[in-house]
Amino acid sequence: MKNIGLYIHVPFCSAKCPYCDFFSVKAGESIIGEYTEFMCRKLRSYKGKYSADTVYLGGGTPSILKTERLCAILSAARDSFGSAGEVTIEVNPRSAMELDFKELRRAGLNRVSMGLQSASDSELLLLGRRHTAADAENAFKKIRSEGISNISLDLMLGISGQTRESLARSIDFCAELGAQHISAYLLKIEDGTLYARRRDSLSLPDEETVCDLYELAVERLAQRGFSQYEISNFSRPGFESRHNLKYWRCEEYLGLGPAAHSFLDGRRFYFDRSFDDFYGGVTVDDGEGGGSEEYIALALRLSEGLSFDAYRRRFKEQVPKEIIKNADKLKNTGLLYLSENGVALTPKGFLCSNAVIAEILYS
């Protein structure tokens, strides 16, 4: 059986954050219960087809399901896909306090990703978050006391009210709590969100300030022992997200739930943002995946970059000369590193990664 990554989407939230574009709805107990039961049946329908070495429950807010339902989903995943080495659940600080992590650990959970976003209560308020820094600290300590030490915290960069000093304090807050992994995402205004509708009234930092905040985050996180391994992801040694690395290394994964994407057998496909389509098994074909251009583009999101040897092993040919030639044109810009072994973007290059990657692929 193929060893894949398994993503399980939990499309429920108690309320929608103003910047969030992920598919989620507010729902009552009956709808959440129906979804949980269907997801367990869906997972069991794959028994004997694949094994999974990573499992990731994302959302939405998976912790809104509470312990019993989460354990049921984790048990169904383990029964059908085997015992994964990394099993992650996303939580927010307040609903995490209602979970029994000892029970979840017995069901296979060994990693938690918590949406902190900021350690400044004033910044959290402007983000529309309903927790405080103290809530996050209490949840973190609860999770760790109940046997799970591999905890990731999310931070947002370029948000209203953020300064170099407040960002440094947020990073220090995460480090001092004992986080093993930090995801530091630049705020992006997504169409259809409340932030998009209020774009003109938002007091957001300008582009130069955002770049400065990102570079500060990279530097400060390194000082606190977190190595950057992807554009927005940093970890202590050995605590990189194995599941997310599958996406960036063009490895196979199955996504279940409305809006969940998959890459299997050379094809990409997804469920639309529809409960009916998910319940009916209706997927949208998204074309071939894993080709050389896609592989290069995704590899360049990683700090390790594009390894020429890894490319040759995968595609049974050398990296196209045009790729190396295009990268060579940029080697003195401070945007990338180029050696005989590969090419990798610098933190400065990550800030304009789309443009740099396009230049490497197509110029």
Could you provide a short overview of the structure?
By secondary structure, this protein is an alpha/beta fold. The protein has helices spanning 29-44, 66-81, 93-96, 101-106, 121-126, 133-145, 164-177, 194-197, 207-223, 242-248, 275-280, 292-299, 308-315, 321-329, 347-351, 353-362, and strands at 2-10, 50-59, 86-91, 111-117, 151-157, 181-186, 227-230, 233-235, 253-256, 261-264, 267-271, 283-288, 306-307, 336-338, 342-345.
Supply the CATH class of the largest domain.
Alpha Beta
Give the structural class.
Answer: alpha/beta
Shape: globular
Mean pLDDT score = 96
CATH architecture type of the largest domain: Alpha-Beta Barrel
Approximate strand percentage: 15-25%
Strand order of the largest sheet: 7-8-6-5-4-3-2-1-9
Tell me how many strands there are: 15
Ranges where pLDDT stays below 50 over 5 or more residues in a row are none
Helix share of residues?
A: 40-55%
The name of the CATH topology of the largest domain is TIM Barrel
* Individual helix count: 16
In angstroms, what separates the terminal alpha carbons?
41 Å
Write the CATH homologous superfamily of the largest domain.
Aldolase class I
Number of domains: 2
Main sheet specs: 9 strands, mixed
Rg, Å, rounded: 21 Å
What keywords describe this structure?
363 residues; alpha/beta; TIM Barrel; 2 domains; 9-stranded mixed beta sheet; 3-stranded antiparallel beta sheet; 16 helices; 15 strands; 41% helix; 22% strand
